[in-house]
Amino acid sequence: MHTVVVHIDKNVIVSCDLVFRIGTRFQTSARYFSRDTARSVGQYSLTTNQPQLEVNGDMRQVSNLWTKRSFARLSTSRLVVAALAFVAVLAAPAQAQDNKMTPIATPAQPNAIEIGTGPLPDAKNPESWHSQYGSKFARNVTVATLTPFLPDPTKASGAAVVVAPGGGFRTLSMENEGWNVARALAEKGVAAFVLKYRLNQTPADMPGFEQSMREMFSGTARPPRPDPEKAMAGLAPQIADARAAFALIRKRAAEWHVDPNRIGMVGFSAGAMLTMATTLAGEDAKPAFIGNIYGPLAPLTVPADAPPLFIALAADDPFFANGGYGLIDSWKAAKHPVEFHLYEQGGHGFGMYPKETTSTGWFEAFARWIGMHGMLKPAASGSGGAAN
Question: How many domains in the chain?
Fold first, then answer.
């Protein structure tokens, strides 16, 4: 067995728009870095394939800095990050081949619609794509788009879902957490719209991107602790993209046979953060129901009009499985519907990947849940929205 010990002194590490205060003497043992989890962690350019990793450090309270409005509602979070693994461990050749990020041509996206939020301010590097684990990823997205996946009209329910892929706001898992999810929803009779939201800029070339990720977690490029106001403003472009997505779907609701009162949102990891931020601070977005798939579960103040919430997480998720379940407690305390699925195994980023773990059942569970809320059948005349 290979064991890697990482000593982290008191520093501030910024990742996925969360600020982590890390001190000394915290120790955790994480059996997260099997072949399956190499895929999920590698999605964030942090790959390792050895069976065990130990991290020494002292995780303290962390603050979610999503947006100014949502930050005001968020209590201090305890997200224990058991494996922010910048350590690159030697892997078997076949695994290394599978994990490698390979630049690819931008795929054809004939149905993608620009949503009108404009180019990302001050962006210099153009959008680029790469493949990894047999799936397609985008980065340096500067112009947001929405891609419809419409169901067969004969089985369309009139409900719709905005799908927000994850990737730490540095990449987007467009295939595993976007298109494949949308296709599956359309098969259920639900119109799905994949949101390719704008991202934080990364180096244009792949070696530079890989190096920037290593530096982010190695401490050689540690930024000073950001001012909360600036950190909160950092997600403003993504929230604007989500709001524009909802507005566009409602504007073209008749064309797409969508009930404007039955539009939900589901997000993965960073996309789950965006889903929660849209619910809290999206103003006119007003999702009818939301899905948080392996996103942070920090407690927060729940809005009076909060929609039903679905959560799926693997117990061996190296990022969000050890920080408690405050979000669920918050929703329950506010007497709003919440359903939580905690899978024994699955790691982070399982999405629609075929795996032998029960985490692959999350999609059918989500589909049954939205069906329970009436989203798989046409709304009764004169009614709309999710049941609260």
Answer: 1
